[in-house]
Design a protein that fits this description.
The complex is a heterodimer of chains A (445) and B (149).
Chain A lengths: L11 E3 L9 H5 L5 E4 L2 E4 L9 H5 L5 E3 L12 E6 L13 H11 L3 E2 L3 H17 L6 E2 L4 H10 L13 H17 L6 E7 L3 H7 L11 E4 H14 L1 H9 L7 H4 L16 E5 L1 H12 L8 E5 L15 H15 L7 H9 L21 H16 L14 H10 L34
Helix pairs in contact in A: 3-8, 4-6, 4-13, 14-15
Chain B lengths: L1 H4 L1 E9 L8 H12 L4 H21 L2 E9 L2 E9 L6 H4 L9 H5 L7 H8 L2 E7 L3 E9 L7
Antiparallel strand pairs in B: 1-2, 2-3, 3-5, 4-5
Classes of the chains: A alpha/beta (445), B alpha+beta (149).
Chain lengths: 445, 149
């Protein structure tokens, strides 16, 4: 088949020193990828989709994301930033996007490009793709890397319904990677193209892309990390801001500007019916429906796992409500007129410049057993074990809920005695832990 | 003994009008089939069949029992409801036909996909209905079956 996704790069990590083994992350994890063993939380590599729900709820700051550091960009001779338009929403109404872009130059980037026009380009390409492909329905957009990973793992049959147009960040980087080496006379590998984002999962899509042989981006810096430097640069140049207001150098797209708000990806579609979903739980609910054959009267489904869209990303600074309000002001200010020529987009589209390198491949399935007959036996045993559990979903055993503990037991990752409520009467059917590499200790509350 | 060992059975009760739990049984069936190592294409067909039949019960019937039996190479689903029954099965099996009310349509249900969609995704499809009593669907989906969703 195509690429496997066996070697997973993850952006979300647990700092063991800070983790106290509480259960907040356990219950927050939508794919039940966390277990607490020996008093510390541990993420199961195959199950994690880097949604960062755990990072949001951890009360001890024990979960962090691995992002690109600004210092590490020294390796590049020429540094280019392409910030998510979420960045424009992190400042008050007096700070316009042109000032933010020029502040990034003072921070140390040699060039900075606005993404809103590329977002508009992506929307036009999506329209063209939908025109040419009447089936299947609905197509699902691929901008949110978490949605792609969720589909690979939990909705493998929907992989073929992912709309195969690269998201704006990759298209922008691909265009720059094509034109900059020639215009600058600098070898491509000496040019660093960096995304600035509120999203840890962008690191995952850069390091292990699901649809490209190699990402066109060299890294992603979190808004949170670079925000203080931008603020400082803005303060130093207050006298310039009036000039920037009067003499803007970048033309922003109103159609693309709203991209990071839920519904923003598809707002510019003229002829197609779109539905936008945001938030991890709602995304899963709707994908369940799509897998059940519903929503076939919808042309395109936009899913973003952060609440309200990328503007609700965990690594932003401003709260998402203010950020959203600010982005909406900018959308209105930029207006509805197109800034990209649809004929040009069409030409790029038909050159396959905007397409995936390869389709999204489903993740390796995780049946209870490779042997179908044994899997049936284990499913029965799991049910029996589950019926004897207290259903309190307390997390003391180290699994997020009783159902998962029963599942872990039949897979050989946990023991019935891990449950503090049934520990006194071990079930005779319970096998000793099959795999010795994982010791699960019971934590008394 | 060997036979009993390699057969998995589970029943799912479904209540008419229970829109709050719409799709819950179908989702559980889907996850179960994945755990049993059923291939993705078969899981998809079973998910569509389970979802549609569960929704039919929720929209039209008083209550039903969905009986799932998984054996090697075969997924068998029987949906037995107590409800109004179907006066004209022929018509109900016509593509695009729907009796969904405007309210149901507003909720996004009843796009006329129901029974024909179930039949299309099944390898064996039997329907038995009595007006005033209920409807019984008997569906077999073979792993590596020939039907495509």
């Amino acid at each position: 088949m195509t690429e496997t996704i066996a070697r997973n790069f993850h952006a979300i990590h647990i700092t063991k020193d800070k983790c106290i083994g509480c259960v907040h992350c356990l219950s927050a994890c939508p794919t039940r990828a966390i277990r607490v063993a020996d008093g510390k939380a541990r993420i199961i590599d195959q199950l994690c989709i880097d949604c960062a729900e755990c990072l949001r709820v951890c009360p001890h700051n024990a979960i962090h994301s691995h992002m690109t550091s600004f210092a590490s960009l020294e390796a590049f001779e020429y540094k280019v930033a392409i910030p998510s338009t979420v960045l424009y929403g992190q400042f008050g109404p007096t700070v316009v996007p042109n000032e933010i872009l020029s502040a990034l130059r003072r921070v140390g980037f040699d060039e900075v490009y606005d993404l809103s026009s590329i977002c508009e380009l992506n929307c036009a390409a999506t329209e063209e793709y939908l025109n040419e492909h009447p089936r299947p329905r609905p197509f699902i957009t691929s901008t949110c890397p978490v949605v792609v990973r969720l589909i690979q793992r939990r909705y493998p049959t929907l992989c073929s319904q992912i709309l195969p147009i690269e998201p704006p960040r990759e298209i922008a980087a691909k265009i720059l990677r094509t034109i900059l080496p020639k215009s600058l006379g600098i070898p491509a590998e000496k040019i660093g193209i960096i995304h600035i984002t509120p999203c840890p999962a962008k690191m995952v899509s850069i390091n292990s892309p699901a649809t490209l042989a190699k990402s066109y981006l060299d890294g992603a810096i979190s808004i949170r990390d670079i925000f203080p430097q931008i603020l400082q640069a803005l303060r130093k140049s207050e006298e310039d801001s009036l000039m920037r207001h009067l003499f803007p150098e970048t033309l922003f797209s109103g159609i693309g500007m709203g991209w990071p708000l839920s519904g923003g990806e598809t707002r510019g579609l003229k002829k197609h019916r779109a539905v936008a979903v945001s938030g991890i739980r709602d995304t899963m609910r709707v994908l369940d429906e799509v897998e059940g054959g519903l929503l076939q009267d919808i042309d395109v489904l936009e899913c973003t796992v952060c609440p309200d869209g990328c503007v609700g990303g965990p690594l932003g600074v401003e709260n998402r409500f203010l950020a959203k309000s600010r982005v909406l002001e900018l959308v209105a200010a930029a207006g509805e007129h197109a800034v990209v020529d649809h004929k040009d987009v069409s030409r790029l589209y038909h050159k396959n410049f905007l397409s995936f390198d390869h389709p999204v491949a489903p993740a390796e399935p995780r049946p209870l057993d490779g042997d179908p007959a044994k899997a049936i036996g284990k499913a029965k045993r799991r049910e029996k074990i589950f019926a004897g559990l207290p259903l309190r979903d307390c997390g003391v055993c180290g699994a997020p809920d009783c159902r998962t503990l029963a599942d872990d037991i039949v897979r050989g990752y946990a023991r019935l005695e891990d449950c503090p409520f049934v520990a006194t009467k071990p079930e005779k059917a319970a096998k000793p832990a099959g795999r010795a590499d994982r010791k699960t200790k019971k934590e008394k509350p | 003994m060997g036979e009993a060992e390699s057969v998995y059975r589970k029943e799912f009760p479904v209540k008419g009008g229970d829109f709050a739990n719409a799709g819950a049984a179908a989702c559980e069936i889907k996850e179960l089939l994945k755990d049993l190592g059923i291939d993705a294409a078969t899981v998809r067909r079973a998910a569509i069949v389970a979802y549609e039949s569960e929704m039919n019960v929720i929209m039209y019937a008083r209550e039903a029992r969905m009986d799932l039996t998984v054996s090697l190479g075969k997924v068998h689903l029987v949906v037995d409801d107590r409800g109004p029954g179907i006066p004209d099965i022929e018509l109900a099996l016509t593509e695009g036909y729907s009796t969904a009310t405007a309210e149901m349509r507003e909720l996004g249900f009843g796009a006329g996909m129901g029974l024909p969609n179930i039949k299309r995704n099944a390898d064996v499809f039997a329907i038995d209905s009595e007006v005033g009593r209920g409807t019984r669907l008997d569906i077999v989906i073979r792993t590596n079956g020939h039907v495509n969703p």
